[in-house]
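General statements about sequence and structure are easier to judge against a single worked case. When preparing material for the folding task, we compiled for one chain both its residues and its C-alpha cells. The amino acid sequence and the C-alpha cells for this protein are reproduced below:
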Amino acid sequence: SYYYGKQSGVTTFIDQWAASLLSRNSATLHLLQPTNAPYARTETRKFGAGELRSVPARYTGLASDFAAWEGPLRERLAKLVAEVRPGLIMLQTPLENIARMAAEAAAPSGAATMVLAHTLSPQMSQPAAVAAHGALDARAAVSHALAGKLAPDTAVLSPVLDLDFWRAGAVSDLTRRTLRARNGLSNRFVLLAPHRFMPTKGQLDALEALRVLNASGHRFALILAGEISGKEEPYAERLRAYIREHGLSGDVIWLPPQDRIEMREWYAASDAVLVPTTNEALGLVALEAQAMGVPVAGYRAMGIPETVEDGVTGLLSEPGDFAGLAANVARMESDAEFYAQARTRAPRFVREAYDPTAVAAQHEAFYRGLIDRARRR
C-alpha cells in the first residue's frame, strides 16, 4: 500500500481492518509501503494471536514520483515473498504497475492475488489498469458505488469498524463541555469537517455553507481538521483567503491532523459533521460520526448515500449545492425533534449496517476462498 497520510480514510481502514482480522486469527500481515524516510525500519505490533509487520521499501526522491519508488518496491516485494511465502498478496493501491508487480511476485510462490480498492483515481478505471487487475485472482471495493465504477465482477468488502472505540458515550460530557468552552464554542452550533485538504473533500463548500448560515443571523462555528500535503497548499491558501474575505475568522477553527483519541473528542464536541465530498469511495468520517451519535450533513455523491440514511440519521443534498447543505444544517439546528431522533438512530444504523463481527467474517471467508483456490491450482 502507498502511505496515504496519518488522517486518511485508507490509513484508518487498514489499521482497523488489520486489528480486527488479526485479533481473530493466528496470522501475520506484512504491510509493505514505499517510504523516503531514511531510517525507516520494520515494526511489529501484536493483535491477539496475530501480528502486523510494517515493512518499509526505502527509496530516494519525492513521494509523488512513482518512478523513484517503483524499483525499490518491486525489489522489496520479491524479497519479502521469497522470505515469507504468503498465502495472499493484496493490493491496497490499485495502480496498473503495482498490479502487474504483484502478479509477477506471486507467480513463483503460487500465492493468491487481489486488489481492494479504497479510492477512485483517474488511473483506476483506465483500460490498462482494468486489464492489469484482470491478471489478479480477484478484485474488491469498499462500496457498491466504487465497485460499480470498476469491472462487473468486483466484489464489495465493507470496512471493519472499531465500534467499541467509535460509540456514543465514549467521551464524557465533562470532556465535551470543556473542549467546547476552551475553544469559545459553548453557545455555538458546532460543525466539524475532518478531511484531508483537497478540493474533492469539499472544505470550500463547507465555508460557503457557513457564510450562508451566518449571513442569516445565526452563529454557527466550523472546525476544519486535516492534513495538508505540499501539493495541496495552494488549495489551503485559497480557503484561508476565503475566510479573510468573508469575515469568517471568528467562526472557523483550523486544526492540524488529529490522532484518533483527539478526533473522537472533537466528534463528541460537535453538533453535526459535514461531508460535502464529491468523490468519496465510502465515507469513514460519516460512519465514525454517526457511530458517535452525531448526525451528518453532506452530498449525495459516490459512496456517501451508503453511509448515511438520508432523512433519518442525516441529511443529503446534491453535489455542489452548498445552499442545500446550509439549509440541511439549519434544519438540524432548528428542528429539535428531528435532531434528537437522528442522534438516537445514527449509532443504531451504523451498527446494523456495518456490524463489525459480520463484516470481519465476510472478509475472512473471501480471503480463505481465494487462498484455497490458489492452493488447488
